[in-house]
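Quick start: load a record and inspect it. Here is Malto-oligosyltrehalose trehalohydrolase:
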Amino acid sequence: MRFEVWAPEAERVVLECAGTTRALERDGDRAGWWTGEAAAEDGTRYGFSVDGGPVLPDPRSRRQPEGPDGLSAVVDHDRYAWRTPWAGRGVRDAVLYELHVGTYTREGTLDAAADRLGHLAELGVTHVELMPLCPFPGRYGWGYEGVSLWAVHEPYGGPEALKRFVDAAHAHGLGVVLDVVHNHLGPSGNYLPAFGPYFTETHQTPWGAAVNLDAPGSDEVRAYLIGSALAWLRDYRIDGLRLDAVHALVDTRACHFLEELSVAVDSLAAELDRPLSLIAESDLGDPRIVTPRARGGLGLQAQWNDDFHHALHTALTGEAQGYYEDFARAPLTALAKTLTHGFFHDGTYSTFRGRAHGRPVDRARTPAYRFLGYAQTHDQIGNRALGDRLSASLSPGLLACAAALTLTSPFTPMLFMGEEWGATTPWQFFTDHTDPELAEAVRRGRRREFAAHGWAEEDIPDPQDHGTRDRSCLDWSEPAKGHHARLLAWHRDLIALRRARGDLTDPDLAAVRVAYDEEARWFAFRRGDLRIAVNLGKKPVTVPLDGRHARVLAAWEPVETPGADGVVRLPGESCVILATA
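Running the structure step on this input writes:
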């Protein structure tokens, strides 16, 4: 088979393959590329030596059997026999479920996660969003320190296990979205700088030198990232990619990297004749990310909406620190604005940033489903000092209110694993760095960060302690117990209602009507013929719903049908969905 590698500054590149070595030749048609042939088959180990240096893994390695520091292995994607015909599934009318393979089950493998897909199909979600799967040092970690952007973390099961997972998900009618990280690579096991200018000091990011998207050599770096993205979608039949922290993709070129990626993915979708989606995580508050390219946007299908999360979180918890400050001043007002205008900060002053932030959403031309709405995510839980979920501090009634607001919102809803039953297990920050100095630096940094906010260092979980990961694994005995079972049934009912009632997937933000009382802590909004009301206070309230003769479709606590006055009497910490037609 033919081997190739981009090493534009090298004088000599040697391939080591199955114990034999041979010098590669310069590619006469592609500057900076080296090529050569060697006998190989699926599983054959190989690597490259640049200018007499150590044998390193292939930057485009499809498999790292011994981890990021070991040799690469050939993967023959045609060996896998796909069992499930699949026409694809886009994000319109979707309900996503964010899942971390290493803690979704105690086993922490893709095969073990696949065995639990029946639960998700019964829940009614449409897509599983897998957190990053690229190889990283050690066994356990969040995955955002990955390297080898074309490979699958071996302790999760490697390439074949991912194909089995996707096949099983499709058999259940579930699409699969994969979280990918293009804005940085892990500090350990990252050998890309030995091959070429994959990074540039022209820009700095929170992780150091930026990925080279606009400096000399950036054409090939962009092609590397886009090739990786297309490989997940093509070779593994993934339905979409979640792009981590796109605001950290520093790119000054006229055609932004995200636009180029969007063009490539749309072309692949046309070639494969199935929908493919790009979902951005962005801190920019910029709707141009999801604006079609024909209208001057970047052309992605959706983006996370942290503004909705922050408004909902402050309304539920009363927390007001950090970026919650502006939302916490009048949380129901903030919630109302996000439900009707998309963003809270749409050019308004952000106290956290010390400047104006965001850009208005053109409600006439931007459908609400392009924004993901959620009450919890891996970031919003795991980046807390103790990794505590909302269930650690809220009653089951308030958790039910959070579900009602998320699953009946105009946005594309997303749940974080275990949220559907109010899981009591935390989701903490954990690592398994094999470099002792890096491990200690991460440990000290985590404790120092939260000590600055008043936490005692000894109370901060040690990321390197395997017990931190173990505590973060879901307890699958919980869904059948007490209020957990009740919450699970509530989530199933809400998702079924969303699927059955077209008003709940109406993408028109301007059609949403809201009413609320900050002091009494009730909030209500209208979606077509449906009325949703939540009482976040402990005392019963009366809520005018502007809908006479409404009937109850779902309620957390028993609620009487409103009379001719259209007023519903709602118990404390409870919610109701009613229909007026």
